[in-house]
Amino acid sequence: DKCPLRACGSAHSDSGLPGSSTIDPPSLPVTFPANDSDSSASQAVSQAVLPTVATWIQSNGTLVLKTMAESIAGSLLRFSVSIVNPACCQPAPNVFIWANLACFQTAIASLKPTALDPSVVALPGDVMENAPLFVRCPAWKLASIVPSSNRPCTDNNMKLTFQLNVPVLLSASVTLTLSGLGSISLTPSGNLTVGGGVLDQGNWSLAAGTLAAAMNQRSVAAYETLWANFTLINPSDYTLYTQRDLRVTVNLCSRTSAGVTTSSITSNVSQISQVFQVTAPQFDSLSLYIGQTTSWPGASNRITVSFLPNLPLAGSDFRCSVVITLTGFSGNCNFGADGTPVALSGSGAAAFAQSGTNLSYANWSVASGGLVAPIVSPLSTFSTTVLSFTLTNGAAGQPSPFFYLSASGVRFQSSSYPLGKNTGTLVATTGIYGSAQGAMYQSISHDAEALRVQAPAFLVRSVSQLLKWPGASNTISIALMANIDLPPGAIVMVSSLDYQDGSSGAPSGAMLLGGAHASWFASSLTASNGTGAWDDVAKVLTLYVQSTMLAGATYTFNFGLVNPRCGQPASPVCVRARGIAAGCARNIIIPRQAMDPGFGSNAPLFVQPPTISFAGLVHSTPFASMSNVLTLTLQSSVRLGFGWFTPMLTLTGLTGSSTPSTSAIPVGSTFGTWSRETGTLVFPMNNQTEGVNYTYSFVLRNSACNQAPPVVSVQLSNLCFAPSAVTPMPFVACNLNGTSPLEVVGAPCGLASSSGLFTQKLVGQSTPYPGCSNTISMSFTVNVPLPAGVAMVVIDFADTVAMDVALINDNAILSGRDSSSFVGSTSVIGLNILDAGFNCSCPGSNDALIFTPAAGDSGSGAAGTYTLVNGLVTSYTITSGGSGYMVPPNVTLGGTVCSRMASLSAQMSYGSAASSHGQWNANTKTLSLRPTVDLQPCQSYNLSFTVTNPVALPGGAASASLLQEAQAVTISSTGVVIAASQMAFSSYWLQALSGVSAAQGDHRPMQVQVPRFLVKSIGQSSPFPGYNNQLTVTFATNVRISRGARIAISNLVGAMGRVAPRSDLNLGGNNVFFQSELSTISQGTWYDCEKALVMFARSDLSCNVGSITFSFNVQNPVAPQPCSPVRINITGITGSTAYGAGLQAQITGAASAQSAWLPTPSAGVLMDHDMTTVLSDVQGTVAGD
Q: Distance between CA 787 and CA 821 in Å, rounded?
């Protein structure tokens, strides 16, 4: 104050505080706030000046305080009083302050910004809610409702959440009203319990769709989030719902924006989900199925239904009673009277359990033609509900009817739901829609469809047989399984067991049955079990059932029939039944059905057509008058014998044999009847398995003359066999073109055979070396007999071939395995010196030979001449013959009696013909071989003879490498004429010799190489000038080096031998073979001027002597020089005079012999120098020294 307030009872007043609900009390307490940091007011001063009570005037909103003491001018006074705000909202009024002093002017109080009470939530924005008596208008800050269920007929606990911006005092008697709920709830009007601790019990009006409840549980603060929950039952009909707005109202005073006072405030309620918008009940279409365990007529059938509702349709919070109805039954035996209970099972059966029991069942409704089942406990909405019940199928076949599932007590989206079936191509399997034993036996597509009923039938109706062979004792096996029970008295008939050849299967009448279930049947109602009635005319088997044949069980039995004798296809066997009672039907029949015949030969009364798969005949010899083993190989397409019947086999066309007729000709292990006149053989067959070759052998003697093969056929009796030609199986005798049975070749009729040939004809030699002994070897086989005394084998060498054959007279001496089977000319007397000759010297070269018989010898003596070559007897000429055989104790040669040594033996055979000889014709070059025994066909004959190869021929060499080329050799036969044919050259006999090869034809008879060196090498012992030097020569030839042949080593340039122009040198090594010109053994003659060494063979050098090595010494020249081109030659090689007198061979490297025996430097063959050996005992040498 500018002016001090004196303690004169002055009044200090505040006015302009209208609307307060504070009534006029005698006084209002005045308090003095403590000092604060933003005010200079002093609490003490204010307490001293102002009173502790003030006077309140409600009518004009005035507060009067009387000062208690004088105030000091300029002092700030502060006080507080509490009044009740107005009951309705208002803006802040202007507050005036004045004092009852004459000088005091009324002033408008300014607003001091102070904080609201912490418990007061300020309004958002710039509203000055701290202005005195500003009262906030009530408003809804939050109003939402959340229903707990969207399921029809279900308790729906709804939670209302709300918030006001003002506090509501318990004393305010505020009522909250929720409206817009409509009239579709199943909850009737009345009081409802409301939870949440704010509202009292509510008053529910179904007609108005409102719920009103007083907020008299407690006071609530501004902006306090409140909730209340209550329960209403959702409607049963989802179609009743329409979208609506919910509103909430409280009876709080408020003002409009125009300042008009209202008695309540209202707000829309947000719906998290729409209240009373319920889910439409429905069944999941993918789970709606109905199936069955059997489609068999008259059978007890378990029907299984599955469904999956989207709602549980029962439970403690579900307020409707729902009943499901299954309709569509037809074709089954009736459930019974109206209301008949039908027991339920399955995983969902518990939901239909009757009160107080564990029994679940539905009731049969005649009116609806369906099963009615009330739902007692909740159904699963996650897993399929499965219900099963049992009924009896009808006896007539029918497709599955249409089934429907419906529900009452709550409105479903559809009034009825078709139940799905097991459609398509899948058959029923284990589980809900199938047999407990697995897949429905013999099921086909759609068989699991409920009340689909098959017509009565045999599901298994197989028939088979044991044997397919004509005339066999056969077993017919049958297996039957019906889809309906066949009780005693039912009749089963098996028919169409046809016999196309009209034969009998079995006598008519009772037929014994076999098999596991034979006792289930009889041939009549009164007959013994295990029989059936066979009608052989109609070919029908009738069976009277004695014990029930259960549906689904397989019954097997068999019976015997004799197969037709002729082949036929399988019979189309049928089966049928009648007189059946099952389920609720009587006089049921199973119509005629074709039976399943199995495969191939197992089909009933299939009879393999009897045929001869193969019939072949072969003989053992094609030669005349010989016992000929004929072997028939027979293969039948069917089994024969085995006690069913005895088949007889007939062979016809066996003509030309000389075997007389007989009724007991051996045929294998049995006997048959043989007719020579007709060429027919009949015999009983053994048991014969199909497809197996069986042989039957018998002996007939061949014709005496050549014969073409006859045509043979075979026939089997007692069966429907057609005659079949017998295949002649060629018999190859010694490569003779295959002969057919009873074909005769090489017969002696006319001593000719057009079929004779040499099937093997090989010829070869042992060596092509010139001058050497050469063994000519032959091997031949003939395909026809060559009888001794009739036939003669002729080996023909080319006339131009030069051959010196070792002979006795004109006979070649044979050797080899079969040489003793042949003789040569009839004047041959052979001498065989077994051991080295005679103990005497043989002075002459052509002296008389006399054999003197020993005492006791029966033969007479013989005499002749012999020829010596180099002291060896080489040929004999017998001048007086004798007979017999003797071992002479002594032999006279040239008038000298030579006694035989004890260890020596000489044998001489003589007579008209000597064995192991062949007659040689030197002009034609033919060797004639007369057999001493019959030469058998197919047998190989091997023999050899010896020739001496030429060393030179009058016409010279055939080529640079061959002295003589081989020519073709032929073989033929006379007596039994076999035309000449060329023999094949074989290398089998060729020796392994150096430079010899079959590839160059050296195995061909009388191919002779030209004389040549095989080895011709020379080396030395020292390369040093003036040193003694030992020269070593090694040579080998392919020719026999004869006695007196000259060997010259020439062109030894620079060598110094002895001083004399010609002198003998000692030879080292194999020196005994040689001599010098002066006949000094083991020396050669050195020609110093010619620088050559010459030596002579002092005896014949064998063809097998191999390489010859010798050495001789010379002195090296003192001047260095390269190696000399040393040459070697051989001249004066003589051979057999049979090729020409005076012929000599040489190896000189020149086209012709030298005119002088001493070679010129260019004569001879260059020798091979040793270019590899390093002289180990000579210092400083290298290879080539």
A: 12
